[in-house]
Structure formats: structure tokens, C-alpha cells
Amino acid sequence: xDAKILIESFAEFARSKNVxxxxxxxxxxxxxxxxxxxxxxxxxxxxxxxNADKGDLEIFRIREIVDDNSxxxxxxxxxxxxxxxxxxxxxxxxxxxxxxxELEEFGRRAVxxxxxxxxxxxxxxxxxxxxxxxxxxxxxxxxAEVYQILGRxxxxxxxxxxxxxxxxxxxIPKDRFRKGDTVKAIVxxxxxxxxxxxxxxxRTSPVFLERLFENEVPEVYDGLITIIKIVRxxxxxxxxxVESYDxxxxxxxxxxxxxxxxxxxxVRELQNENIDVINYTDNLDLYVSRALSPAKVSSISINxxxxxxxxxxxxxxxxxxxxKGGHNIKLASRLVGYEIDxxxxxxxYEEEDVDLAEFSDEIDxxxxxxxxxxxxxxxxxxxxxxxxxxxxxxxxEEETIDEIFRILKxxxxx
Length: 414
Fold this sequence. Notes:
The chain is an alpha+beta fold.
């Protein structure tokens, strides 16, 4: 392989990857100078000229002519008068000799090594380009095509043939993809694994939902509406706190759109994830009430020292506040930054009921707390449920639930 083919093949790749010309020339020069150092031990007195557009390479060795008996005759940048006149008969002492070195003079093995080095440099450059490209896109939405589905991850291909990874943990539980499908996701992070860039995508990140709002709601994209915070249980429910500094703009209405037109597009992309858009406020009581939507709160008690909030609701509102699988209350707690405890308001017919706190001498405190987290704060509210209901709503073991029922029933039998 001659220099022209080497240079042209590298230049073609570099241009396809949008590598700037100075970088391309620097890499080529580094490779050829490494060849020079291998053969001559130094490249200090060599001039390397590369024309990447034409594939031309010129290497000149520059040496000063000295007398045949000079002590400097063995220096790397000196040449004896006799040797110089073999090149050009009219050379004189003190002049400089520019001797052109052809690539073939380095030997076939050296040229082959230069080719391997260039290939490696190309691969390294490609990795750097890929890493830098996606490092700049972290947090941005991209579309890629599924080309292989594995147990723990999905492999995708971007428009340039680069491999991207969507791990199982970054997929919405309801996601079902087939080979050839186009997938939207955000660039979550870019890792370097053994020198190779690994681009990780995500569909579960709150940032993904934020970017979808920017795409669907022009006021969010333009900065007229600010997204204060997003919390998600991917595929199940999300709460988005929004705010507008322009009193003329209703931030919730703008995000939802006419008859839900804007929010529906986002919901479909997120596999029917239920999205609550909430108007942010500095009034914590009002913020908590909005966060627990669709439940209607009767009263609130805030303890800033313990970062806990007690919320009192009518019996028919408790299940709404907790939500399916407890998602609503969990997300509301994360949104406002406080632990929320739900309590039922007793009506006149429930006055003979007994608060669970009264059983602290028989039931462990942590068990009572676990029940209260699901809105069960009285004995009758617990007994109104079946064993299966209580198992599903809490993380308590069946033996513990049996014991709770026994203790509470004994109270009313007495």
C-alpha cells in the first residue's frame, strides 16, 4: 500500500465523520513521524508535508554539510561533504541538504505497521467523535431504530449506524418493542467501558417527560411556562408542577391543551401514564392539596421539624388520595418534599371507633405507621377490609395481619 492510498482512505473517513482538516492532518503527520523515529531514532530534522486532498506525501531529511574530518559528523543533523556531493556534486560546507525520503525506503513491514496504526487511530477517533457527540446531547430526546432485543436491554441504531442501549430498568414497564420499531428516548448518560463509549438511553427519567412537554407545549419550550418539578412512577402516574410568570397564561390549561389535545400525545408516548399537571404555589397547604388531586382534602397539619404532613379527608376521598398501588400519595410526597400521612375524618356514626394509636401496647409502632400510611387510622377502617385487601395495600406478612385482626376484633367483642 502506497502513501496515496493510505492518505486518501483516511481522509475519506475523516470527512464522513466531519473531522476538521487540521485534526486530520495532525493524525496523519503523527503516524508518519512515528515511522521516521522508528528508522532514524529522531524526527527533529525531518519535514513532513501532507496534501490530504490529493493524497500527496513528501518527507525531507534536512542536514547541514560539515567537513569530512569534523567532530560533528556523527550528529543526526549533520552530513559529510563527501556524502552530500553524492546527492548533488556542487554542494559546499555549511549548506543544508534536503534529501527526499520515499515511503518505500522504510520497508514493507514499516509501511504495514503505519497502516495498522492509522486504522487504530481511525477507530480511536471514531470513538472520540461518538462520545463527544452524545455527551453534548445528554438530556435531549433522540429517535433510534430497534435492531436487537436482549433479556436485559434493547440495542438500537441511530441514523449513522452507531449502537445505543436502552436497559430494562430505563424502559417503561408497559413498553413492548419489535425489531425495526422507532423508539423515542433521552440520552441518559455516556459511559466509557474499556475505552469504548456506551450510550445509555432512558424512557423512565423525569427529564424525558420534561422534553416531551417542551415538544408538545410551545409555551414551555419558549420559557413562558416553567416546569418546577416532575415526579414519576413510569407507566403508572406522574405529577408535574408548573408555573407561569405571566398572569395572562394559565399554565395547567396550556399544558393540557384544548380537550386534552396536548397532554394526550404525551400520555400515548408514555404508554398511557396518568399525568397530573399541578399549578405550583409557595403556599404549602394549597400545594399539598393540589398534589393529592384528584382527592379533596378537608384539613392539613404540617410539622416542619419532622418534615411530615397529616392530611384529613372524608372517608370516600381516602382511596383517591392513596391511589392505585399507593402511587398517588407516594408521588405527592416526593413532589412537595414532605412525608404525607392520610387520616379519615370520623363522622357522627363512627364515634365508637377506636384510633389505632390506642393499640400501641399490643401492636408494634411500625405496624401502626404502615397502616396509617395507607389511610387506615382506626380499628374499624382496618376491620372493614379483607385479609387480601390488607396484604395488597401493605407490605405486612399474612401472620401479622391475622394477629392485627385478632387484636382489633377482641376490642369490639369486649
